[in-house]
Amino acid sequence: MMGCTYDIIACNDYDACTTDECNPSSGCVNSAVSCCDGDQCTEEYCDSVVGCFYTHVNCDDDNDCTIDSCDCETGCSYKNLSCDDYDACTIDACDPESGCYFTTVVCNDYNACTTDSCNPSSGNCDYDAVDCNDYNACTVDSCCSASGCQYTDVECDDYNACTEDSCDSSSGCVFSDISGRCQTDNKCHRDYCDSVIGCTYDLVTCFSDCCNYESCHPDIGCVGEQVSCEDNDACTIDYCDPTEGCSHDQRECDDYDDCTTDTCEQHLGCVFTTISCDDYDACTRDYCCAETGCYYETVDCNDDNDCTDDVCDTYEGCQNTPVSCDDYDECTTEVCNPESGCEYTDVEYDDYNACTIDDCDSWWGVSHEWLECEDYDACTADWCDYTSGCVHDEVNCDDYDECTSDSCDSETGCQHELIPFDDYDACTYDYCDHDEGVVHLEITFTNYDACTIVTCDHDVGLISTAVECIDDDACTVDICDSYQGCLHIPICCDDMDECTVDSCESEKGCTYSPVDVSDCDICTDDYCDCTSGVYHVPVDCQDYNACTNDYCDETYGCIFDTISCDDNDACTVDSCCPVVGCQHHTVVCNDYNACTDDYCSPYYGCYTEAVECDDYDACTWDDCDESSGCYHLTSDCNDYDAY
């Protein structure tokens, strides 16, 4: 009798990815095989049939601008491809899809005033100014950035109407004096040339006031006559004021008498019409008081006059019939003395006027004939003095004009001959002042043209010479303004290109230097746009590989650091796909052994535990088959002992 026997358990799980062994304490142990070969350039896998196998890591980042390689210690690495063609006149760049490409530097500053080229050693664009000098003093040479050299005719207008303006191609503007053309023989004109309006003929001002008028005759000059203020209106008082002229003051016709109506008639003058106080009663006396007007008193028809017969009739009033004392002699005065009757007195015909011849005719009466004082001498003023008779005063021919020589002719009267005043000096203005006499004024002139120098020659008069304004500076346009004088206007050197520094040198003119676009930062692409200026665009370090962390280092440039996909989970296989990035595939922990339960720990990976086949029945033999699992065989307790 053998008793209990023990068969060795087979722990082979037929899985090439596990190491199979049997632990006396715990039974079979199937440990996962480690396929790590320590090479970062391979990806490790395990197949349950063949065991560990390895594939090369794909380091291709699909970027033609990098050199892809793999280091067994660090893994994939990507080095930026150098696209430098050592030509400073090309812009070297790289396209991730096509690789290096080289763009020729365009040195066009869009300025027709420069010759554009690229310096092959420095790469800087050279913009040399075009020489537009045509060596013609009659043109202003300039350059337009759009169309190139331009030649504008110099405007030789010195704004002086007394010069004839022209241009000489060698010396420039020429201004010839033409003021001599303004002279005339008209003595009523003051002839001269004004720099603004040209020939000027100012009328000679003849002496006149409001009561005396002088006119000018072209051959002899000023001639005068007295102003008449007679307006033929008896209702005005006519007189002449030397400063205001004729005045016609309305005549005051008020006689301050309430017994008259005061009016004025143009042909008669003041008319004082007595108002009527008639009450149509002949037996009353109708009166008018200058202060109070009409009043009435009963008529006393007794005139106490022996020379009348006194009666009163209502319609006819007092009848005082005069006694007729008329002796029909115009040289006597007939009167009737109320007390004595008629009296006759000789008429007094002497008017005590030495200018009349007095007489009395019995038929015609008193007469006063004017005495004739005319002596027929034009050099005397004939008049009559009421006390002494005829007077013959010498005529005063002084016209109080220092510009005339005064004399008198007995037949024609006063003579006023003009005094000559021309001193034949072209630098004096000659005239005669009616108060001071002949005047020779030195010609003074205000030169309103800052572009000419004006002097005076005693033979020809004013001479104008053009001012020289050339400053020999290529950075200015030299012109002369008649008001401000020489102007040196800075030329515009703006080529409208933000990529050049525009300046001007007095000898050469406009210069255009390229702008320095470098910001000394390896992480920017520096360039300049002629319209908007300098740009510093961050370098694109994108390698389009989801397995790298891309950035730019100020020292080394683009850096592509491989990202870590380790999720610290032993139950996943960690890998990285350049397209989608990190991937974590779950580890399959199947050892294909029905006698084990398979598990995975995130800390140490796959592990197995033996299946518990003990059915706690002492009458069975408990065992496990790797293919089918636990089985229980009934124990044969026959000891084959009949006893």
Summarize the structure.
The chain is built from no helices and 52 strands. The protein has 643 residues and is mostly beta strands.
Can you walk through the features of this model?
There is one protein chain. This protein is mostly beta strands and 643 residues long. The mean pLDDT is 82. The strands form 26 sheets. A two-stranded antiparallel ribbon has the order 1-2. Strands 3-4 form a two-stranded antiparallel ribbon. Strands 5-6 form a two-stranded antiparallel ribbon. Among the domains are: 71 residues, no CATH class; 39 residues, no CATH class.
Low-confidence stretches: none
What's the β-strand tally? Answer: 52
What percent strand? Answer: over 45%
- Helix- and strand-based class? mainly beta
Spatial gap, N to C terminus: 14 Å
SSE topology sketch:
Blueprint lengths: L17 E6 L3 E6 L9 E6 L3 E6 L9 E6 L3 E6 L9 E6 L3 E6 L9 E5 L6 E5 L9 E6 L3 E6 L9 E6 L3 E6 L11 E6 L3 E6 L8 E6 L3 E6 L9 E6 L3 E6 L9 E6 L3 E6 L9 E6 L3 E6 L9 E6 L3 E6 L9 E6 L3 E6 L9 E6 L3 E6 L9 E6 L3 E6 L9 E6 L3 E6 L9 E6 L3 E6 L9 E6 L3 E6 L9 E6 L3 E6 L9 E6 L3 E6 L9 E6 L3 E6 L9 E6 L3 E6 L9 E6 L3 E6 L9 E6 L3 E6 L9 E6 L3 E6 L9
Antiparallel strand pairs: 1-2, 3-4, 5-6, 7-8, 9-10, 11-12, 13-14, 15-16, 17-18, 19-20, 21-22, 23-24, 25-26, 27-28, 29-30, 31-32, 33-34, 35-36, 37-38, 39-40, 41-42, 43-44, 45-46, 47-48, 49-50, 51-52
Task: Write a concise keyword list for the protein shown above.
mainly beta; 643 residues; 48% strand; 0% helix
